[in-house]
Amino acid sequence: MTSETVPFVNLDHMHDEIAEEVDAGLSEVLRSKAFVLGPQVAAFEQAYAAYCGVQHCLGVGNGTDALELALRASGVRPGDEVIIPANTFVATAEAVLRAGAKVVLADVDDDFLLDPASVREHLTERTTAVVPVHLYGQMAQVELIAEAVGPGVAVVEDAAQSQGARRHGRRSGSLGTAAGTSFYPGKNLGAYGDAGAVTTGSAEVAEHLAKLRNHGGVRRYEHDVIGTNSRLDTVQAVVLSLKLARLDRWNGRRRDAADRYAALLEGAPGLTLPRTAPGNEHVWHLYVVQVEERGKAQAALDEAGVGTGIHYPAPIHLLPAFSYLGGRAGDHPVVERQASRILSLPMFPGITAAQQEWVAEALLNVL
Asked: What does the pLDDT look like over 241-255, one tens digit per residue?
């Protein structure tokens, strides 16, 4: 086949599909001047709550804020302990710290997802929440994690990479006490800038969140609690509503692309393909393989014009910013083994069969 350049991610296809409707929606926002918590925000919140199968959705400024506010609204207080997986993006740990709690790290299973047994090992009397991270597009075993921690501990889903995913028929963002998600542009449901949301089935949590995101109150100059300023822009709500209507179709294309990769790469030496865990419906935010000689493979793909990524190259306990936790190599062996081998291949709804064949050919050549 002819040489091809394959970007790691390409947002053009999704933007082109909604461009005209975005222009019309933004014109209405400019006409009305309702830039903050305008009617389009309320409409998106209602639509996304219904999509996730929960009663409440509150838009916030970004995914990190979403997790912090979800933790605070779920009862996490300064000095508490919150268990998170060691292989997550740093924002998960930052959110715990911003809520005033202590980060407690646990190991994961072979599918990169928080291991309920490891959660149980790290549970103490000071644990008030656990954050299962739905990594790469599929959901953690939330029901088993909730069973492991018991009814007195909040389960706050990190749903930033799993918009539209299901576990045993239930959507991401609907299984825990609350869930924080990110609408960063590269997500399955991405805004045109930073944006996020919290979903919850609890009216009490939702009421607290509504205050926390808006300086501690829902009415002007009434401040019931110490809050912050983290509100979803009306402009972003316009974009998100248009994309939400197409999300399932775009996720279907991601699944088709994942199936194609599996067929092209099956049986390759030194390569471990990702799988969908039992009970899950994957939405393939990322397609992450494991390669014995990752550096060599990544260099070969780069030379062939194929964009790749590593999500994430260093576990939380081995990052300099978290050295104060006293973590050492060997603390979380599954996470550490995966971190040295993971490689993310190009994945986006508009990726073509020819592009995937080029990726596979380049990878198979080096393997």
From this structure: 999 999 999 999 999
